[in-house]
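User: quick one, sequence for these tokens?
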């Protein structure tokens, strides 16, 4: 999605030669680069906090990681999924 937008804008402004317009476009490129970087960073933070994962899945993951810290594993069902904790 974003990739296509950038390519489209690059092609649309390929013939610009006026220095003020070029400077404006370079600032837009810098702003866009910062936006993409910050969005990726924000997503990594949210995933590291387990935000964006439904509450049951987050709770299950927390219980699994707690069990793993003390050397235990949660039982799995026949289909390989983690055992339902009833939460």
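Assistant:
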């Amino acid at each position: 999605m974003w990739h296509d937008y950038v390519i489209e804008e690059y092609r649309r402004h390929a013939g610009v030669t006026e220095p003020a317009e070029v400077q404006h476009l370079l600032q837009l490129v810098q702003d866009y680069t910062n936006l993409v970087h910050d969005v990726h960073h924000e997503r990594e933070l949210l995933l590291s906090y387990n935000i964006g994962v439904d509450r049951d899945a987050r709770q299950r993951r927390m219980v699994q990681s707690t069990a793993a810290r003390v050397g235990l594993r949660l039982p799995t069902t026949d289909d390989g999924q983690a055992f339902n904790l009833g939460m």
